[in-house]
Amino acid sequence: MAFLALPGVVAFAAPLALIAGIRPRPHNSVFAGALFSIGGLLLGWCVREFYVAGRGTLAPWAPPQRLVVSGPYRYTRNPMYIAVGLILAGWALLYGSAALLIYAILVAIAFQLRVLFGEEPRLARAFGAAWASYRAQTKRWLW
Predict the structure, then answer these.
(1) Mean pLDDT across the chain, nearest whole number?
(2) Which of 51, 104, 116 shows the shortest CA–CA distance to 78?
(3) What tens digit of pLDDT does each residue of 18-37 get?
(4) Going by C-beta distance under 8 Å and a sequence separation of 6 or more, which residues neighbour residue 65?
(5) Distance (Å, whole) CA 141 – CA 139
(6) Would you give the DSSP letter of residue 28?
(7) Whether residue 6 has pLDDT greater than 90
(8) E-strand spans in the chain?
(9) Phi-psi region of 128 (alpha: psi -120 to 50; beta: other; left: phi over 0)
(10) What whole-number distance in Å separates Cα of residue 79 and Cα of residue 98?
């Protein structure tokens, strides 16, 4: 349920509302499909890691009980947000839509602010030294 409610709204419902009545650009479909596929697979992998390794979900009301540092979290501290960004980039490319591109940029800014001011302080409180070690070894994004 949380999977549908949280990334489902941001990555699918809102973009679909923005493109209502617009036709896709078929010449962009291969690249857009690749972005959708990579983003969708990565998102699924992240949700699985939260459930299996973290013993929780992506929902704020049932967060992981353990710090998740496996799977895609070995390479970046925020692969779920990257996955949603890839999906949004796929929408923008498929429809050649400036509105979708602006939406994707605004979502990326919101993710950055959420990570900086919400998630990272909460993780520091919840996981202490384990979080500090993980944070020192793993990039926030991919750079």
Answers:
(1) 92
(2) 116
(3) 988 888 888 889 999 999 99
(4) 54, 55, 56
(5) 5
(6) G
(7) no
(8) none
(9) left
(10) 25
